[in-house]
Amino acid sequence: MIHLFEKGSDPSAPTLVLFHGTGGNEHQMVPLAKEFSPGSSVLSLRGNVLENGMPRFFRRLAEGVFDEADLIFRTQEVKDFLDQAAVEHGFDRDNLVAVGYSNGANIIGSLLFHHEGVLKGAILHHPMVPRRGVAIPELKGLPVFIGAGTNDPICPRPETEELTGLLSDAGADVMLHWESFGHQLTNSEIDTAVQWFRKNFA
Ligand code: MLT
């Protein structure tokens, strides 16, 4: 996968794995990673799917309607990429915290739904429920931050609550933070996520 890797100054800090929203690229989330953890290595991916020229991490059939077969295929592709990238770039495969926005948060959610032990933690900005009716692997104690909008037109409040419940029921330690700025990623949401990250990982 097209990606960017920057080695951090602190080898004990988690490597931050970044997933952009629809139409973003591997550069978009890097400034955010520096706010979370300036000493961390950063692995930032570009989605392998194009929608009208806009990179995404999996296909969708319509706004909010995912192409489930492609989601499953792309989730495995990302998982395999993380395994290979750890060898290629020499970071600790078992110490990854993923950060994603919108479509990027959705592929992280799908990683958690399909692969046990894939991440050490996850920061999901405006995620949706990636799939329904699947047995989610054990997520015992996994720290997960969800930033959501009470008035997000792409991810309605009940869907955020459903995702929170699914992850919590699988054992994740979920912090749900509400904003009221639709689907936007605001500075106050980022500030709250940064505080949460420092509490859990610093
Ligand atoms: C998605 O397709 O992943 C969600 O609708 C979020 C988006 O990218 O707009």
Automatic annotation (TrEMBL):
InterPro entries: AB_hydrolase_fold, Dienelactn_hydro. One of its GO terms (molecular function) is hydrolase activity. Keywords: Hydrolase. SUPFAM superfamilies: alpha/beta-Hydrolases (SSF53474). Residues 80-184 form the Dienelactone hydrolase domain. The keyword Manganese does not apply. The keyword Lyase does not apply. This is Alpha/beta hydrolase. The lineage of its organism: Bacteria, Bacillati, Bacillota, Bacilli, Bacillales.
